[in-house]
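Our working data are protein records whose layout never changes between entries. The record below serves as our worked example for the rest of this section:
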Amino acid sequence: MEKVSKFYTAEMKKYIADNCKGKAIIELQQEFNNKFNTNVTYKAMKSYLSGHKLKVGRRNGRNRKYKDEHIEFVKNNVKGITLKELTNSFNEKFNMDVSESAIANIKSKYNLQSGIVGGQFVKGQVPFNKGKRWNEYMSENGQKNSRRTTFKKGNIPANAREIGSERIDKNGYILIKVQDGHKNKNWIRKHRHLYEQKYGKIPKGYKVIFADGNIRNFDLNNLIAVSDAEELIMNQCNLFKEDTELTKSGAIIAKLLDKVNKRKE
């Protein structure tokens, strides 16, 4: 953290501390880059905030993220499916981008169990509602909500997206749907997808960055694959520029510095 902090001047640190409250990280990142003419990435900003114990997020009083229909959906669909499948169904149903841990938190808060351990039903476990009609274990209001939120066999959700559809995730990046299924791999970031279509699978520990800092510029010439270590060096040495070619040169420098650092270890 000490090495990363050297990149930030006193003015930069004060700006982050004064402006982080009530904002999403992506908002703070973009405003920071605009003010100081830098190209700090989302991950770098998140790391700085975490390292300095600075909190961001919605102010008190704003609408809570999960409404009653969200909770009801989880309650009515939790049985007999994995966390990944439930998360995928939830995101498809409500066109959201919540994580598995977020759904797990809902399950924990409301003491909801799937009846599955390690991908299988627990041996000898009988579902609490087996052989029962809804009116035997649900209130009238609960039955009404269940009819509204439970998937019907063979039905496709009204808001299900076609392959090739796009949406924006919580960090401001564009996602593209690449498959149908019950896994969180249905949607991936568009710039990553385009890069892999052209150059092949991105190695583990690498990511694709926008050379000019514009996350809406999907020109292949603007997409560069760098390792996590190289990205850190680029942030530390201010090698991100608004000019595509200058950033590419910075990536080459970072790659060389990373090799030098590894030889010293």
About this structure: The chain has three domains: 2-51, 68-149, 166-264. Confidence is low (pLDDT under 50) at residues 59-63, 117-123. Strands lie at 116-117, 120-121, 166-168, 174-177, 187-189, 206-210, 223-227.
